[in-house]
Each structure stands twice: as C-alpha cells, then as structure tokens.
Design brief:
The protein is an alpha/beta fold. Helix content is 36%, strand content 25%. It has a seven-stranded parallel sheet with strand order 3-2-1-4-5-6-15, with helices on both faces. The protein has a seven-stranded mixed sheet with strand order 10-11-12-7-13-14-16. A two-stranded antiparallel sheet has the order 8-9. Bound molecules: NADP nicotinamide-adenine-dinucleotide phosphate. The site of NADP nicotinamide-adenine-dinucleotide phosphate (NAP) has 31 residues, from α1, α3, α5, α6 and α9.
Length: 334
C-alpha cells in the first residue's frame, strides 16, 4: 500500500541523486534510495535501500508499490525513463525525472499521458536545471496569456565540470535537436547558429551557440509559441568536450561546486521585451531543490495534473520559483 509521504530516489548513487537524497532529508522527508544495484547504495546505511533494473518490469513495480513519488536521477533517460515512468503509472505513483534529452520527454508525453490521466498520477519529466527551469521561468513571464510570438532562452555557465552521467548521456543522445518554428517542433538549422548574449555578472558578455535541450519539448507541450530559440554560451561546451575536464568538486559543506549559472528567457523584442532571469550556483546541486519542491507539492496536493505534463503545466510556476529554498538561487521576471 502506498505511504502518502514516501519518496523513492532511483539513481540515488549518482552525483545528482545524492543531492536529491540530502535535500529530501533537509526538508524532513525520509527517502527510499534505489538503483540497479544494492551494492552501490551501501553509503546510505540508515535508509531503506532497494534495487531493480530497468529491464525488470515486475521488479520496478515492486519497488514502487508503497511509494507516493518516484524521482528518477538515473540517466541516460533514453534507457530509464519509459520503464520507470510506466511502472510508476501502473502503481499509482507520481513520477519526476531530470532528463535534458528531448526524445525521452516526447516518449513519456506520447506513451503515458492517457494512462497517467486515467490513473490520476502526474508524470513530469525534465524537472531540472536543463528543461524545467526555463519552462517554469517562461511560464511565469507569460502569465495567464500563455502565448508568445517570439521567445529566446539563453543559458550562461562560467564553466562546466561534467559528471560521468552527463558525458554518457551526451554520447547516447544523437537525435537531431528540435526548436519551435512557425508554432511547431522543427529540426534545428545545420550548422547551428551562433550569437552573443549579455548575461548578468559574474557571467557577463558571452559568445553563444544555438543548443536546445528538453525545455523546447516541455514548452511546446503547454504554451503557444511561434518561434523558440535556445542558446548556451560556448565556453562551458569547450570544458565538456575536453576529456581532461574533471568531475565537479565540492566547494562547500553541502558538496556544491563553485560553478555559477544564469538562465534568461526573453519574450518579444526591442522596447517591448519581457525578461525572466534565474541565477545560482552548481547546475547539479540546484536540480535537487527544484525536484524536491515538486515532490513536496505532489505530496500535499499543490499540482494541476493528472497526466504527463510540463513543469509549468503541473505546478503554479511563479509561486514555485519563489518558493525554492536555496540561498544561492534567485528568479526574477517582469
Ligand atoms: N536536466 C538537468 O539539468 C540535469 C541535471 C543533473 C543531471 N542530469 C542528468 O541526470 C543523469 C545523472 O547525472 P549524474 O550527474 O547524477 O551522473 P552520475 O553521477 O554519473 O550518476 C549516474 C546515475 O545513473 C545510474 N544509472 C545509469 N544508467 C543506468 C541504468 N541503465 N539503469 C539504472 N541506473 C542507471 C547510475 O547507477 P550506478 O551507480 O549503478 O552506475 C547512477 O546512479 C544524467 O543523464 C545527467 O545528464 C540532468
């Protein structure tokens, strides 16, 4: 039987999973930690530990049978999202993940929206730095209007120390990236466009390249946008492409790295431009309070589902962004 407060973290052994477990504990929840191997969960000696592989449907259902919310931090999500989210819907468990991969989000919307609605469950892929944050910010900027002719999203990082999971997921995700053109999802131009963006300090003026992530698919799911272009500054891509760039190192007692980020969303152009900006530290660590805020709202009923939904469709975006309990994180818009 489902425990109304039990949250299971799948992929708890990973860099992101550990931040999520810590954040759940910090918010007074007692997570169940899970993954494909019990041996990899030995570090969580005090917690309920469970294992099942994504190839084992009955095992995944058993894992989730008494759980209210599952948070999937095990990527590549092209391998894990559909099996785990399917087991979630089948067991009446709400599902969150952190995929930046566009096809993984499309798959969940296509395969699980109807069954999630029938089951009364909420399935929210991309509830993370890449994907969810831009989706929530744009939803907040647009307000009840929920439509715009022209949107740009720009992500600025002062550097990128990638995890092994990021590297493996990038190599696995070979699909042509999608943008929104003339109101529909369309392949990005080849070669990708380049540009410049003035981010707030300490990121500042940067060269950028058009590089859409899962936010394009989530935004297309619930907002009416004529043109959507997403940009990333090029300096962190050089870090990512360098095999010698180390994994993130803890810079404080919570394990956060020193990486700084800015995410900007603009709507319209010229004097009429409306803008939203989110700033903070460490893209992996910041994903945890986003996920856990979503989990808390799924537990206490503050969600707009059921169904397979975009972050800004599942949650009241402006209220959500201002509630993130992270001293380094700030989101503003007008
Ligand atoms: N959208 C975003 O902003 C965002 C933010 C953070 C992370 N992510 C994504 O989240 C994923 C994890 O990142 P990370 O930084 O935590 O990487 P990581 O430290 O390398 O951890 C990877 C985790 O995934 C698990 N895993 C990998 N393949 C699996 C499979 N086939 N079945 C079951 N478990 C599997 C690993 O389990 P084992 O311990 O058993 O190997 C481990 O727990 C990556 O895809 C990354 O791109 C996205």
């Amino acid at each position: 039987m489902t425990d109304s407060q039990r949250v299971l973290v799948y992929g708890a052994s990973g860099h992101t999973g550990k931040f999520v477990v810590d954040e759940l504990l910090r918010r007074g929840l007692r997570p169940v930690v899970a993954g494909r191997s019990l041996a990899r969960l030995a570090q969580f000696a005090e917690l309920d530990r469970r294992a099942a592989s994504v190839e084992d449907g009955p095992g995944l259902r058993a894992l989730l049978d008494d759980v209210a919310v599952v948070i999937n931090c095990a990527g590549p999500f092209l391998d894990t999202a559909l099996p785990l989210a399917t087991a979630a819907v089948e067991t009446g468990t709400h599902y969150l993940d952190v995929t930046a991969e566009q096809p993984a989000v499309q798959q969940l919307y296509r395969e699980l929206d109807a069954s999630a609605r029938s089951a009364g469950t909420v399935v929210v892929p991309a509830m993370a730095f890449y994907g969810g944050l831009a989706d929530l910010l744009l939803t907040a900027v647009l307000g009840p209007e929920a439509s715009a002719a022209e949107v740009e999203i720009a992500i600025g990082l002062d550097r990128w120390w990638p995890t092994e999971g990021t590297r493996v997921t990038g190599a696995r995700n070979t699909a042509t990236r999608l943008v929104i053109r003339d109101g529909v999802l369309a392949p990005i131009s080849d070669p990708a466009a380049t540009g410049k963006w003035d981010f707030p300090e300490p990121i500042g003026a940067q060269s950028t390249v058009e590089l859409p992530f899962s936010e394009v698919v989530t935004i297309d799911r619930h907002l009416e946008v004529g043109t959507l272009r997403s940009w990333l500054n090029t300096a962190p891509l050089d870090d990512l492409r360098d095999p010698d760039t180390p994994a993130p190192q803890a810079h404080d007692e919570h394990g956060r790295s020193a990486q700084r980020f800015a995410v900007e969303v603009t709507v319209g152009s010229g004097a009429q431009t409306r803008r939203g900006t989110a700033t903070g530290r460490d893209i992996y660590a910041t994903t945890a309070p986003l996920l856990v805020e979503a989990a808390v709202r799924l537990l206490d009923g503050r969600y707009l589902g059921p169904g397979a939904l975009a972050p800004g469709e599942a949650f009241a975006a402006a209220d959500f962004l201002t509630a993130i309990p992270d001293a380094d994180f700030e989101a503003v818009w007008h």
